[in-house]
Specification:
CATH architecture of the largest domain: Sandwich
Distance between the termini: 110 Å
Helix content: under 10%
Order of helices and strands: HEEEEEEEEEEEEEEEEEEEEE
């Protein structure tokens, strides 16, 4: 009897207790493979340059499940000041995946939150980390980016060497400066109503005295509630005629309009443009277009105009 009591005491004191099992951190069985893609080495651009790629990533979803990617954390290093970079953001092809973020001077680490990015199973996608440089960036500043982490709903596998031996692009800002395009949204002449060929925004583009510009495309973002096919057959009109290709509908709350041919904006000049669309939304839907980021105007500087 005594021996059985001693045994029971031993088991009670030294057998590991049963602990509650925490739920799995990931609800899916897939995986995301991340690989850094080599870009060009050290190169220079003028101050004020936009959409400059400083890091490129290949994201590959294994075939078990789709992958939702919530954000990307990156680290800026180099001899330049963080203030040289006006904003940093992620893009894939011509689509901007995040808003523009400033880089904290404290540690140079910034987390880019994805609006919505789902990578289908068995597919891959290239994602570029882009920067817009400040027009008064320090001459000679050097900037590099490395990947810190990716936030997804599945485990992330980093290809061997990506963290220990990064291949970051480099950047030294040159002394010259790119001219800027100012955007002003003007009041509508009459209220927006249901129907075809309605003017939903009026904008004025103004070039400064630094350079001429060739504008290839512009992306509008609707801060209102209208989405997708609520607005159809969108285009920009100048002086009574279309100057862009027609977009059949919005993609979510955004539409990218391509100038055909590219629009020339001379220095010290302005151009008035009207955004027209067929409105198929109910009255509960709202429309308030903005150009969310300066780089949503895709343009290049022109040194001389051809006559």
């Amino acid at each position: 009897m005594v021996s059985s009591l001693i045994l029971a005491y031993f088991l009670h004191q030294f057998v590991a207790p049963v602990l509650p099992v925490a739920p799995d951190e990931f609800s899916k069985s897939g995986q995301l493979i991340v690989e850094e893609v080599a870009t060009m080495g050290l190169f220079s651009v003028p101050r004020g340059a936009q959409r400059i790629e400083l890091l490129r990533l290949r994201l590959h979803a294994l075939c078990d499940d789709d992958v939702s990617i919530h954000g990307i954390s990156i680290h800026r290093i180099g001899a330049g000041s963080t203030e040289d970079i006006a904003r940093v953001y992620a893009m894939s092809d011509v689509q901007r995946l995040t808003r523009g973020y400033t880089i904290p001077a404290r540690d140079g680490i910034v987390h880019l939150t994805m609006r919505r990015m789902v990578l289908p199973a068995c597919q891959e996608r290239l994602v570029s980390i882009m920067v817009d440089f400040s027009s008064d960036a320090q001459v000679g500043g050097e900037h590099r980016f490395t990947l810190e982490s990716i936030d997804a709903d599945v485990p992330v596998i980093y290809r061997k060497g990506i963290r220990t031996m990064p291949i970051p692009a480099g950047q030294i800002t040159a002394g010259s400066r790119i001219g800027e395009i100012a955007v002003a949204f003007l009041r509508l002449v009459k209220p927006v109503s249901y129907g075809a060929k309605r003017t939903v925004a009026r904008i004025q583009l103004s070039a400064d005295a630094v350079s001429h510009h060739r504008i290839y495309a512009v992306t509008f973002t609707n801060d209102g509630s209208a989405r997708n096919a609520d607005l159809q057959y969108l285009s920009l009109i100048s002086r009574g005629r279309p100057v862009t290709k027609i977009a059949e509908h919005m993609e979510g709350n955004r539409v990218r309009l391509i100038f055909d041919p590219p629009l020339i904006l001379e220095k010290n000049k302005t151009r008035l443009l009207e955004l027209r669309a067929d409105i198929r939304a109910s009255r509960s839907r709202t429309i308030r277009f903005v150009i969310e980021e300066p780089s949503d105007i895709e343009a290049e500087q022109i040194d001389r105009l051809s006559r």
